[in-house]
């Protein structure tokens, strides 16, 4: 474990690249898109979280197995709003030694239903998407996405 922590500390200290590593830093990007409903009048809306990552890398599923970093959605909603459902795609199963990892290897989307009062609040709907992007090792990260009101 200490060797892994030393390697991660070195990775961060060197600006995200190891000596001799010509690969660019992996990137995860996303967007929060309204699919149905309006936050200005409807009490229910459906949204889609679109995620993309650097080719050749993967991120762990919500439950990645014994290895990897779990992917999490942390909703930041206006007062009175709540998430009623999240629909995640099925992850790919990847063997890792005697275990299996559950991962996403390319662009994917998560659908969610939100409900709230019919008030015309101008507070944004935001989502913090936390992940670990992995190849030989996993690098934790997060992206904050915002739905325009």
Give an overview of the whole structure.
- The protein has 149 residues and is mostly beta strands.
- It is 8% helix and 52% strand.
- It is elongated, with a radius of gyration of 18 Å.
- Residues 1-6 have low confidence and may be disordered.
Throw out a few tags for this protein.
149 residues; mainly beta; Immunoglobulin-like; six-stranded antiparallel sheet; four-stranded antiparallel sheet; 1 helix; 10 strands; 8% helix
Quick synopsis:
The protein has 149 residues and is mainly β. The chain has one helix at 2-13; strands at residues 28-36, 44-53, 58-65, 72-76, 82-87, 92-96, 99-104, 108-115, 125-134, 138-147.
Please tell me what the overall shape is: elongated
Amount of helix: under 10%
Biggest sheet details:
6 strands, antiparallel
Mean of the pLDDT scores? 82
**Regions with pLDDT < 50 over 5+ consecutive residues?**
1-6
Topology as a string of helices (H) and strands (E): HEEEEEEEEEE
Count of domains: 1
Classify the secondary structure makeup into a structural class.
mainly beta
CATH homologous superfamily title? Thiol:disulfide interchange protein DsbD, N-terminal domain
Oligomer: single chain
Kindly provide the name of the CATH class: Mainly Beta
Give the topology.
Elements: H1 2-13, E1 28-36, E2 44-53, E3 58-65, E4 72-76, E5 82-87, E6 92-96, E7 99-104, E8 108-115, E9 125-134, E10 138-147
Antiparallel strand pairs: 1-2, 2-8, 3-7, 3-9, 4-9, 5-8, 6-7, 9-10
């Amino acid at each position: 474990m200490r060797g892994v922590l030393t390697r991660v500390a070195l990775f961060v200290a060197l600006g995200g690249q190891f000596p001799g590593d010509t690969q660019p830093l992996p990137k995860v990007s996303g967007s929060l898109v309204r699919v149905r409903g309006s936050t200005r009048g409807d009490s229910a809306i459906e949204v889609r979280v679109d995620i993309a990552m650097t080719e050749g890398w993967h991120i762990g599923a919500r439950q990645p197995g014994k290895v990897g970093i779990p992917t999490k959605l942390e909703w930041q909603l206006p007062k009175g709003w709540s998430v009623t459902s999240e629909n995640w795609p099925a992850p790919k199963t990847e063997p890792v030694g005697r275990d299996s990892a559950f991962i996403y290897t390319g662009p994917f989307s998560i659908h969610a239903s939100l409900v709230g009062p019919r008030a015309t609040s101008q507070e944004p709907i935001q989502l913090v998407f936390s992940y670990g992007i992995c190849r030989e090792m996993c690098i934790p990260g997060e992206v904050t996405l915002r739905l325009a009101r």
